[in-house]
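re: ur question from yesterday

yeah so i grabbed the chain u mentioned. its 159 aa long if i counted rite. heres the sequnce exactly as i have it in my notes:
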Amino acid sequence: NKLKISICMIGKLTGEQIDDILKRNVLGRIGCHDGKKTYVVPVNYIYDGHFILAHSLEGMKIEMMRKQPQVCFEVDEMQSLTNWRSVIVWGEYQELTEERERYYAMKLFVDKGLHLKISDAVIPSELNKLPMLPPLPGNNRPVIYRIVITERTGKFERD
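ran it thru and got these structure tokens back, copy pasting raw so excuse formatting
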């Protein structure tokens, strides 16, 4: 048996490479902190070249970001343990309340969704047989928000 040793290169991504990674992906992780607890959670997002746009129903993440709007956002692309790219963004959480901004954000989600392929394996066949469920009580209007980017960085490793 021969032991194979490979040399890996670790480097810094350019601004253009960071933009490409943010535009190409739709799943990232947002980190927020309320002064006592840190919470990191995956979110679907769109990057429009300026902002990270996302939406959510109200819950712990939204409550924490309202309390402390400084957040961190991270996206990874991983081909192997020695071939990956990672982007980290810091910024400020801002809710979109104006109808024009909300419409623009949701249009981006719909437009991006038209290009995403969903595997039949992730949609159980039983789902199509269920009757429509009544809406949740209370305000179930999604919170649409953006992260105003104040700083960003990216690293990569490749063998």
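noticed a couple things. The beta strands are 9-12, 27-33, 38-47, 51-56, 70-80, 83-95, 143-158. also Residues 114-138 have pLDDT under 50 and may be disordered.
anyway ttyl
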